[in-house]
Design a protein that fits this description.
By secondary structure, the chain is of the alpha/beta class. It is built from seven helices and five strands. The chain has a single domain, classed as Rossmann fold. It has a five-stranded parallel β-sheet with strand order 3-2-1-4-5, with helices on both faces. α6 runs parallel beside α7. It starts with a helix and ends with a helix. InterPro entries: Cell_Envelope_Assoc, DUF218, Rossmann-like_a/b/a_fold. It comes from Sphingomonas astaxanthinifaciens DSM 22298. Pfam families: DUF218. This is DUF218 domain-containing protein.
Length: 176
C-alpha cells in the first residue's frame, strides 16, 4: 500500500512538472491597466515593461526589487536613448523587496498609495506562475494582467521553479 501511494504521488509530481513546463505563460495583449509592475532579475523584463508603458497601456511602472544603488540614469543607459524622460516621469524604483513574495507586498503598498486597482505583471515565463500566485494572494481585489517575457529556460530552471512554486503553495496551505 505504501509503495503504491508513493508511486502515485511521484507520478502526480512528475505529471505536474510536465504540465508546468509545457504551459508557460505568454505575453499579454493590448489590455490597459492602471500600473505595470516589473520584477527584476531576468533578461527582457524591464524592456517589456517600458515598451508597454510607452504604448500608453498604463499610467506608471514600478520596478520591484531594484538594487538601491540603481538610478534612473543607469536604467536609461541600459535601455538606450530617449528613455530618461519616460523614466523620470513615470517609473518608480522599488528597493524594498528581495524576493517574489516581498515583490508582491511592495507592489501592494505602492498601488494603494497611488489608488490603483489593476496592474500588468511582467516577469519571465518560467517565473510567472509563482509570481502571479503571490500577487493574487497579496492583491486579491486587483485585476492582474499576466504579461510573461518569453524565454527558453533550462530544465534545471524549470525544475527549481516548479519546486519553489509547490513549496510556496504548501506553505500557504499549511499557514506557515
Amino acid at each position: 500500500m505504501t509503495i503504491r501511494l508513493s508511486a502515485l504521488l511521484l507520478l502526480l509530481y512528475a505529471l505536474g512538472f510536465v504540465l508546468f513546463g509545457v504551459s508557460l505563460d505568454k505575453p499579454a495583449g493590448a489590455e490597459r491597466t492602471d500600473a505595470i509592475v516589473v520584477l527584476t532579475g531576468g533578461k527582457g523584463r524591464l524592456e517589456r515593461g517600458m515598451a508597454v508603458l510607452k504604448q500608453g497601456r498604463a499610467k506608471r511602472l514600478l520596478v520591484a526589487g531594484a538594487d538601491p544603488s540603481v538610478t534612473r540614469a543607469d536604467l536609461a543607459r541600459r535601455l538606450g536613448p530617449g528613455t530618461l524622460s519616460t523614466l523620470r516621469c513615470c517609473v518608480d524604483l522599488g528597493s524594498e523587496s528581495v524576493d517574489t513574495r516581498s515583490n508582491a507586498e511592495e507592489a501592494r503598498r505602492w498601488m494603494r498609495r497611488r489608488g490603483y486597482t489593476s496592474l500588468r505583471l511582467v516577469t519571465s515565463d518560467w517565473h510567472m506562475r509563482r509570481a502571479a500566485y503571490e500577487f493574487h494572494q497579496d492583491l486579491p481585489d486587483a485585476r492582474i494582467v499576466i504579461d510573461a517575457v518569453e524565454t527558453h529556460p533550462s530544465l534545471f530552471t524549470l525544475f527549481a521553479e516548479y519546486n519553489k512554486y509547490l513549496l510556496r503553495r504548501a506553505a500557504l496551505w499549511l499557514d506557515i
